[in-house]
Recover the amino acids of this structure.
């Protein structure tokens, strides 16, 4: 039961993008197309799952004072693997994502889950957390990329060769530029809050956005302030 709860929490309740508002750099930078969004999401998911497993396994032998550097070394190892594999098998996607693949090393979602969860829980729960958060991150990127590409180009691009023209209108170029990313993200965050409010109202409760689910309350920042 707890495994299932950890697995699904990243899909909605603690979605990294729409609820925790973490990983905004790649979320805004690479979501100009669905293809880029899925590529980044899958790469981050692989790193997150593998890092969680390794860190949970060795958590008992990592000295407390150097745990963050140790986590970064583990994460960087899997990021290097992803970087090399994508360069070998999906060169066009690798070129599109560019510097944002190596930057997964310092992604606050990856490091945050390592510090907040994997270093404190057993392997099975850490696996569930990694899979759930990774899928939630991928879904968030895909939804954001879908909105921006459809409105900004009128297409849906998946793995280069598959491109669908979904709307016949003059595209809003703004949506595939940096300001469009902020606009799309803001609208989706507002939609999430509206859905949560409607669900709470239907259940007879009063909904207030949780103030503790944001970057300012990340466990890493809390630890640094102590």
């Amino acid at each position: 039961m707890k495994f299932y709860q950890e697995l699904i929490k990243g899909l909605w309740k603690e979605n990294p993008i729409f609820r925790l508002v973490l990983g905004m750099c790649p979320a805004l930078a690479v979501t100009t197309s669905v293809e880029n969004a899925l590529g980044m999401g899958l790469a981050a998911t692989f790193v997150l799952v593998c890092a969680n497993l390794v860190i949970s396994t060795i958590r008992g032998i990592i000295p407390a004072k150097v745990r963050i550097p140790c986590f970064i070394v583990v994460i960087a190892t899997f990021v290097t693997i992803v970087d090399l594999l994508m360069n070998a098998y999906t060169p066009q996607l690798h070129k599109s994502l560019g510097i944002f693949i190596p930057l997964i090393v310092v992604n606050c979602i990856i490091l945050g889950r390592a510090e907040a969860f994997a270093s404190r829980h057993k392997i099975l729960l850490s696996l569930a957390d990694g899979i759930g958060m990774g899928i939630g991150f991928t879904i968030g990127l895909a939804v954001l990329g879908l909105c921006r590409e459809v409105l900004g180009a009128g297409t849906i691009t998946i793995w280069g060769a598959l491109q669908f023209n979904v709307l016949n209108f003059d595209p809003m170029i703004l949506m595939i530029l940096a300001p469009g990313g902020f606009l799309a993200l803001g609208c989706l965050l507002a939609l999430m809050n509206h859905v949560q409010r409607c669900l709470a109202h239907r259940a007879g409760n009063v909904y207030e956005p949780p103030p503790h689910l944001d970057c300012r309350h990340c466990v890493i920042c809390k630890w640094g302030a102590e």
